[in-house]
Amino acid sequence: MFRVLNPEGYPPAVSASGMASALDTVEGKKLFLVDVGFANSDNFMAQLNGWFEEHRPAIRTEVVRWRNQHIPDPELCERIKAEGDAAIIGVGT
Amino acid sequence: MGVHLNVFAQLVRNTVKSRGMPSARQVFVPTPLMNTPPAVLRQYVEGDDPVHSRPFMAEVFDQLTRPVPAGELRGEGWDRSTPRYVEASGEAEMHGLFQERRYTDFLPIVLPTEEHVERMLAGTSHPPDEMVGKLRPTIGMEHWHFDVEKVAVNAVMAGAAPEHFPVILALASSGDTGRQSSMSSMGNMVLVNGPIRHEIGMNSGIGAMGPYNYANSVIGRAFGLLSQNLQGGSVPGVTYAGSQGCNFSYNCITFAENEEASPWEPYHLQHGYDRDESTVTVSYIWGSVWAEYLRTYWEEKLQAMICGLEPGMGCTLVLDPIVAREFVEKGFDTKDKLALWIHEHARIPQRRYWDHVMLNLIHEEVESGVEPFASYWNAPPDELIPVFEPDRVNIVVAGGETNGHFSIFMGSPMRAKFRTNKGQKAAVSIDAWR
Questions:
Q1: For chain A, what percentages of helix, strand and coil (3-state, to nearest 5) are there?
Q2: Do B87 and A3 touch (CB under 8 A)?
Q3: Which of A23, B315, B382, B395 is the most buried (most CB within 10 A)?
Q4: Which of A76, A55, A59 is nearest to A67 (CA)?
């Protein structure tokens, strides 16, 4: 048997924060459509918002934008938790 | 719920798994997104999710209401530690295994036996189990950590010698990666300053940026290998997303500044070090343009070269000593004066300055009113804006004076905002790792 040292680093421990429960229904709920700031994400979220307005007006939507495309916006996350039922975040590129 | 481009499906799966949430809600749209008109984006919404092969909006509604496994509601982890050794039936099989696991750059390597690694460790006074730092493929991904021994393993693989090890450790400690996963396919430039250049025989003269020197070659290669292995990989589609890739990544353009032939103070003195200290500086580089001598229309040409670059990235001028002396003869007796001239004279219209990349990079500063970017944002479309702020213009002297040539690279050290080690200078001490 031939043996050498492993060149890989040490991965961080997996420590999940836990996922949110599923919604019982989307009808009548408030969805935040979060533009993360990558190029054209704003236009995609505008089109997604337009689809909800045309096809599912009973679902309330609001398009918002993270201040930094690389890091979650803590103030916005708090607002979504307080005022929303779910968030659709994108577009991840 | 996350919305992603379909080309990143595997990357997304790996990321959410590493966060202990393999069932995290994700939907996908076709690629590309950038420069895609609104009518096509509407088709993305009304069409199929290309990963789940069903209508995009049906997948959105289904995932928002689909029950989540109980374990993931409360959060679950698992052990994924890496073993200290890799075993195979023989040397040939081990080389195959290293390629299969993508530990290499697909050029021949030196296998990191205990004997080789022990010899490498003699190149530093630091103990093998001392933690050196952390790396990740790009912002938003998890950091992996590593100690002195892990860096030595990768240095051996690159063919380095113990005398190179302090430079390689300094690179590993910098928080900079030589395998950045950006879709833009950036590479790196590694600049060494100070007495160690001569101690280990680095090249700053003829052919400084080419494959003509042992130390230049293996230090740059070691930086790439240690980056990919210590950060958790650099695998296309999984932990690497560069659309075209970058040939600079084989050696990370590693060279020494020609401090002796330069008419200016060396790079590390500009950044707070003494002449008798040794440093290494990593820049992120996308490409270069080339010219020779400061001829009759040098100002016009220099302006054109700078104005063709993306404003957000900074630039690095690598000047042969002949050209550096020409600039001095024209009144630029410091690097700072030349950087200021470029800031003042290389300008582009406001509308082009903000076209795509720049807006992505500093949108937060604009919204927060940070100057001068807030004023640049509010300027009329045809107003001329400096391509670079003076502190984003880096100037280095290298070359052997066979002719008056120079290159301008698009790129510079990582801005403080994006650095892994907050508050750390871009120029890292090598002496701290002797």
A1: 25, 25, 45
A2: yes
A3: B315
A4: A76
Asked if A3's CB is within 8 angstroms of B146's CB, the reply is: no
Residues in chain A: 93
Asked if residues B54 and B34 have their Cβ atoms less than 8 Å apart, the reply is no
Identify the closest residue of chain B to A29 by CA–CA distance: B64
ipTM associated with this complex: 0.93
- What's the pLDDT at A89? 95
Supply the DSSP string of B189-231, one letter for each residue.
Answer: EEEEESTHHHHTT---STTTTSS--HHHHHHHHHHHHHHHHHT
Among A9, A20, A26, beta carbon nearest to B231: A9
Structure tokens at B39: 């009518």
Q: Which two tokens stand for residue A30?
A: 């408030």
Test the A interface: residue of B13, B18, B33, B101 with most A CBs within 10 Å: B33
Q: Are B137 and B238 in contact (CB under 8 A)?
A: no
Q: Tell me: the pLDDT tens digits for B372-392?
A: 999 999 999 999 999 999 999
Q: What is the pLDDT of residue A71?
A: 76
Residue B379 identity (one-letter amino acid): A
Q: What's the rounded Cα separation, in Å, for the pair B91 and B295? A: 57
Cα–Cα distance, B27 to B59 (Å, whole number): 7
- Residue B98, judged by CB atoms within 10 A of its CB (0-12, 13-18, 19+), counts as buried
Segments of chain B with pLDDT less than 50: none
pTM, 2 dp: 0.89
DSSP code at position B407:
E
**A-B contacts at Cβ under 8 angstroms:** 213
- Smallest Cα distance from B149 to chain A, Å: 9
Which of B3, B82, B357 faces A89 most closely, judged by CB atoms?
Answer: B3
CA distance B169 to B344: 38
Going from N- to C-terminal start, the domains of chain B cover 2-74, 93-346+387-433
Residue from A92, A86, A91 nearest A32 by CA: A86
Both tokens of residue B120? 């490498």
Nearest CA in chain B to A87: B1
Instruction: Indicate the domain borders of chain A.
Output: 30-90
Q: What is the pLDDT of residue A77?
A: 92
pLDDT by residue (tens digit) across B62-110?
A: 999 998 877 776 666 667 888 999 999 999 999 999 999 999 999 999 9
How many residues make up chain B in this entry?
A: 434
Residue type, B107: L
